[in-house]
Amino acid sequence: MTAVLDVAVYSDTTAEESVDGVEGFNFRALSAGITPEDRRRIREELLHRVHPTWAHDHDELDHPPTCALLRRDGRTYLARGRSTGLTLSGRQGNLVTQVLVADDGDAFGKYHPAQLYAAPEWTLEATPSGDLDPWPAPTSVRADFEADALEAMLRDDPWAVRVLPHYLTMLDAAAREAPQRLVLVHRDLDVVMRWIAAGALLLEPERAANLTFRALVDDPLRTDAAVVGLSPEFELEPVVGANVIDLERRTTSDIEPSTGSRARVAAFLDGAHAGGRPAFDLAARWEPTVGAELAARAASALHGAIPASEPWRLAVELVDALDSAGARNELVVPAQPVLAAIDTWLPATAEEIRTARETRDRVRAIGATGVADALDRVAGAGLERLVTTLSAELEAHDRGAELAVVNGTWDWLAEEPEAETVHPWLEAAVIGQLPREQRADALAGVQLEIRTWPIVIGRPILPRDNLLVAAWLRHQGIDARLAAIVRNGVAALRGGQGGSDASYDELLDAALHAPYFGTDFPDEELADLVLEYAAVHERIHGARARVADRANKTLKPLLADLRAWGPAVAPHLGSCLIDAVDARAVEYVAEEAGPWASDGVRHALRSRFTSEPKSDVALHALRLAGGSPAPIADGARKFLTEDVKSSTLTRLRGEWERPERDRLDALLRSAGPDRRRGRSGRFGKAKGA
Predict the structure, then answer these.
(1) Going by C-beta distance under 8 Å and a sequence separation of 6 or more, which residues neighbour residue 673?
(2) Nearest alpha-carbon partner for 449 in 419, 429, 470
(3) Beta strands 92-102 and 75-86, pairing class
(4) Which pLDDT band, with edges at 50, 70 and 90, does 686 fall under?
(5) Which residues belong to the signal peptide in this entry (predicted)?
(6) Rounded to whole angstroms, how far apart are CA atoms 437 and 417?
(7) 27 DSSP assignment
(8) Does 676 have pLDDT greater than 60?
(9) pLDDT value, residue 3
(10) Which string of DSSP letters, residue by residue, matches 169-226?
(11) Above 60 in pLDDT, residue 297?
(12) pTM
């Protein structure tokens, strides 16, 4: 009887297409030989895995595909899977996995399961549903997975030949009863599977029959497969406890090849040098000056059968080594693959551009014009692309790009004439890199482009950043985006959200006088608000100027302003109530203002405590707390009992006369347990940091 391979297909499916009538992730199609135990193993161990954060920065359809070989209880499972985008319900993370199942190793025919990765019968693109016919043993695979092509891949690549004894030693260890894991690193699943298939063909048959593998994954610890393919497109952690061959960077773990592996490789390569193999010719050309190891790696990357994702790295490493060795002729008349690899490079970071330029300058000095010109071209193209991308991100207010500018990542571009489109943001970063409390004053002495405000201000939080935003508005100007932020803050203020803050007055006045481009103010609603507030601003400053009047007529008009502008007006009203000499006006306005007066006095005392002698402010607050009218006394009490640390009051109290000390003690005792007497002082624990 002809051996067959049973088939299962798993994906997101409707109830009608599901084999058991249940919608969601389920089996879409099965052949008759798939058992319930097979289905359990497929669900638990063989499904394509979608990395949870892949879609954050990538197209879902570009997710690395997978291939896995599992052996359990006499059954062999070969699975392939890929990401397919959105589920039927519109969520991310859809997938399809197709699995071949056999209970007889001969069911795979003349091929090792790794070669069947390239069998033509796979249907991952158009997934079937319903009942499936089992596969007969495949009679062909893709040409590059046939045995002769796999052998040629190894024989014709000098680096592969160099590491082949190490690779077979690692495969032997991976095929043991207690396997030592082997990790192959490459972003192309085809490359990883060709290496697994080629290695299996070179192993002793009984060892090859014990191999299990899974590729491509992000973490080798998430599988118990003996051979693991790891994709560098994932954010990889360092691999520990495993042998590693990096097929992209052409590096291997430090392992001593076994005698048996050396013998098998020698037999495999016997007679291989008869034909023309250009990669070996390159390796032989470079070996006398840069050594066998680098010569093999470079020749492999630049002219071998195994694709390198970044061949320029080895090209630059080779150029550096040739230069250091004084091999001038090799650089003046370079091998064409070296120039071709350099031409594929598009430097994407400051370090890469610097490397290209420094290498260019060194080789130009010895007359290697061709290599120097190639490096000059890629450095220029890389800088142009980098600047274009960064400029677009900054114009779009991409926060990551803005933070990179503020953090100094792109400071070096200030010296690059070709980067003039991002220079305005770099100029703003000179201010943005100052401590936040110093930026407002620094803005008075510079002229920056209005659109660069996020570099200096960041994402403003009002009222915390009122004064910084006001300084920008006054000295640099306003655009539509910043106007919208100010408008939203002012609208929240008028809606009763947030607490009182004296700096709203400065912010609104600065917005009124801010320069802008064009004939119209960039935000009509904000324009109406600041024009309305302009009269309030005049009344506030009029009241401040008349606090010495014995018949003060400037306080009462502020009462009407509290209704619409309370959080902005109250701190200034509180300051006027503290200083005004017209006791009758103070009493009337304070009683009418009520909580606004209390809140305003408290804020005014807070402000003075940071700018005037603290002992004088605290004594003044103590006197206000014991007097009238009640709203003023209430604000002063809250300032002393809730805003000033006990440790600070303890120090200030020591400077006072006995009557003031006693009055403070009485006030603090009445304030509650937080201010009661403690062990080390006249009264309790320090409050706050």
Answers:
(1) 684
(2) 429
(3) antiparallel
(4) very low
(5) none
(6) 32
(7) E
(8) no
(9) 66
(10) HHHHHHTSSSPPPEEEE-S-HHHHHHHHHHHHHHS-HHHHTT--EEEEES-GGG---S
(11) yes
(12) 0.64
Q: Give bridge partners of residue 213 from the DSSP assignment.
A: 69, 227
Other residues' Cβ atoms within 10 Å of the Cβ of residue 190: 16
Give the pLDDT confidence score for residue 320 in this predicted structure: 93
DSSP 616-668: HHHHHHHHHHTSSSHHHHHHHHHIIIIIS-HHHHHHHHTTS-HHHHHHHHHHH
Tokens standing for 357? Answer: 């330029």
Q: Is 557 exposed, middle or buried (0-12, 13-18, 19+ CB in 10 A)?
A: middle
Residue pair 215/192 in contact by the 8 Å Cβ criterion: yes
Residues 563-586 have pLDDT tens digits of 999 999 999 999 999 999 999 999
The CATH number of 145-303 is which of 3.30.450, 3.30.300, 3.40.50, 1.10.1070?
3.40.50
**Residue 565: count of CB within 10 angstroms of its CB:** 23
pLDDT digits (tens, 9 = 90+) for 503-528: 999 999 999 999 998 889 999 999 99
Judge residue 685's burial from the number of C-beta atoms within 10 Å of its C-beta, 0-12 exposed, 13-18 middle, 19 or more buried. middle
- Region for 64 from its dihedrals, namely left if φ exceeds 0, alpha if ψ lies in -120 to 50, beta otherwise: beta
Task: Quote the DSSP letter at residue 247.
Answer: T
pLDDT in tens, 133-192: 998 888 999 999 999 999 999 988 899 999 999 999 999 999 988 899 999 999 999 999
Neighbours of 263 (CB within 10 A): 12
Domain boundaries, the chain: 4-141, 145-303, 311-392, 399-457, 466-644
430 pLDDT band, cuts 50/70/90, is very high
pLDDT at 543: 96
Between CA 193 and CA 456 the distance in angstroms is 52
Cβ pair 343, 316 in contact under 8 A: no
Cα dist. 172→185, 217, 533 in Å?
18, 22, 82
Distances (CA, A) of 342 to 279, 316, 367: 17, 7, 18
Angle made by CA atoms 485, 511, 505, in degrees to the nearest 5: 95
Quote the tokens at residue 10: 């798993």
9 DSSP β-pair partners: 29, 98
What is the average per-residue pLDDT within 346-368?
A: 93
Judged by average pLDDT, the poorest of 295-299, 319-323, 348-352 is 295-299
User: Where is 161: in which H helix or E strand?
Assistant: helix 158-174
